[in-house]
Design brief:
By secondary structure, this protein is an alpha+beta fold. The protein has 2 domains: 208 residues, Metalloenzyme, LuxS/M16 peptidase-like (Cytochrome Bc1 Complex, Chain A, domain 1); 196 residues, Metalloenzyme, LuxS/M16 peptidase-like (Cytochrome Bc1 Complex, Chain A, domain 1). The chain is built from 17 helices and 11 strands. The relative contact order is 0.16. The N terminus and C terminus are likely disordered.
Length: 482
Amino acid sequence: MAKNKDQFSNRLRAPLLISVGLLLCGLLAAPSQAQGNRSYIPYEKYRLDNGLEVILHQDDSAGTVAVSMWAHVGGLHEAKGRSGFAHLFEHLMFQGTPHVGDDKHFSYLQQAGASSINGTTSFDRTNYFEVVPAHELELALWLESDRLGWLMESVDQAKLDEQREVVKNERLQRVDNQPYGLAQEKMWQAMFLPSHPYYGRVIGSMSDLDAATMDDVKDFFGRYYAPSNMTLTVAGNFDVTHAKNLIEKYFATIPAGPKPDYPNIPKPSLSEEVRVVHYETLGKLPRVMVSYFTPPFLQPGDAEMDILAHVLAGTKTGRLRKHLMELEERAQSVHVYQQSMQNVSVFTIDVVLRAGESPEQVLGVIDSRLSELYDLPPEEEEIARAIATIETDKVFGLQALGGNSGRAEQLQRFNHYTGEPDGLAADLERYRNVTSEKIIQMMEIYLTPKSRGVLFALPKSADDLKEIKSGFKKSGSKGEQQ
């Protein structure tokens, strides 16, 4: 019986996935280097004597070169009381050196015709990237090596204070003055203990940002920005020998420094429901969020949660989305997502209600739709549709060399998490192996009412509160916050 079901599943999924396979064949036909004969991004990886890891991906059909530098440090590695520091340091990396000049990094690249110039900080890493015309590769490598080797010679208290204010203003825009921003922060911090590095949500707190000192900056740079903790990726149209000579010329003289010793951080867990009630001053509609701790990125269960999110709300016919928005007309929007991270992931159901709707009643609908899955598991067609959507998103990103989803960043991402830069084949395979039975198994382990966070964000208008509270019932849980 199971064999017949698997045969049916394969026949059903094939039409939805064939276009993705054809795109891969046409886009990146290349010799194999990973996952047997399924190499999507051919590469060469090596190390300099100072420990700098280098990944090269050659594409002679391109007219540009993407240069990406990853520091293997993010919010996960911040000390207690220094939340937001990895992001603050990302800003300092663009402030110039004695050779480049103050705040000239962008202008050098822009004058050379570069695009996609940026840096980002996540819970797990910090990246810096740009795409330059092929003949400007040396400029990009010089700029990256210069700030890695000589940044601290120009960072002073004035620059720290200036970028501290920039980051604080960014926090105001993204959190404090953003509708539901403080509500989401309360929810997140109700689930994570203050001792867990994810507690700071990368952006950090105002008090922690104010506490950052020049000694902190020097220590952070020395600890995490040594070549032994960095990976440089070059992707595009270049001569391999010439590129290697340039990398040796500009990076090899930078002192190695010790590779940081990362502590083993226990995964967070909840033994009872944590409920947060936030009276919202900016958002005009009630909002309900339900979050669960789930397996880390690329670990067993992570793909199942991705597929489940799509089944619930990935399309207009998603089970939860359709029920709340069309059948019962209770919701303005419904989003479900798996936020995959290195230490632990978070699966979230996020519903903005229509005016006057009861958060408690909508929470009941969410629970009933989840419970229904045990009797009516995801169908093969729903799973196949989710897989096709996920694969298409991943594969189309490979048409670009740079940017957040381009080949350079894909190589960096898989290398960071697995040590294998060309990890796309294994990544796609884990989705193809998802079944309804596996989804239900993961739900039984991770999506339980006693191990979740619940947020009710209620508009602060007196009239709205009066109407909403008429249908609102306190949970009485020990974790309730206001």
